[in-house]
Specification:
It is built from four helices and six strands, in the order βαββααβββα. By secondary structure, it is α+β, with helices and mostly antiparallel strands.
């Protein structure tokens, strides 16, 4: 990395983040087609809650196998309530939905990194 290409330090998100990984169930292609308009309406109405979201595919493959959502929520229950309002979820299209607490730490979308130095986060990195 060039010396002038260091990521700037940016503020952390002010609310907890949850990474939600949904895996499609049987018949998901039909459900996606039937519920697409309602799903898009739901995510557009709630767009400020989503840091990132989109479909998932196996590497190099075309068919969709699920979706991911990185959402802002006050707690896990709030994240699940947001997801329960999504017609893709309420229709039973997904076979599984995994909810994980996440921290946006570095990246282009974030605009940099959230730590000042390795020493500043060493205790958190150890678990």
């Amino acid at each position: 990395m060039a010396a002038n290409d260091q990521p700037p330090t940016v503020e952390r998100y002010d609310s907890p983040l949850y990474l939600i990984i949904c895996r499609d169930g049987p018949g998901s292609a039909t459900a996606r087609a039937e519920k697409l308009d309602d799903h898009l309406r739901h995510v557009e109405v709630n767009w400020r809650r989503y840091v990132l979201a989109g479909p998932l595919r196996d590497p190099g493959a075309q068919p969709l196998i699920g979706s991911y959502f990185l959402v802002r929520a006050t707690d896990e229950a709030d994240a699940r309530a947001l997801m329960d309002g999504d017609p893709y979820v309420s229709s039973g299209m997904y076979a599984t939905m995994e909810v994980l607490e996440a921290t946006a730490s570095i990246g282009l979308h974030l605009g940099g990194k959230i730590w000042e130095s390795a020493d500043a986060i060493r205790d958190k990195a150890a678990g």
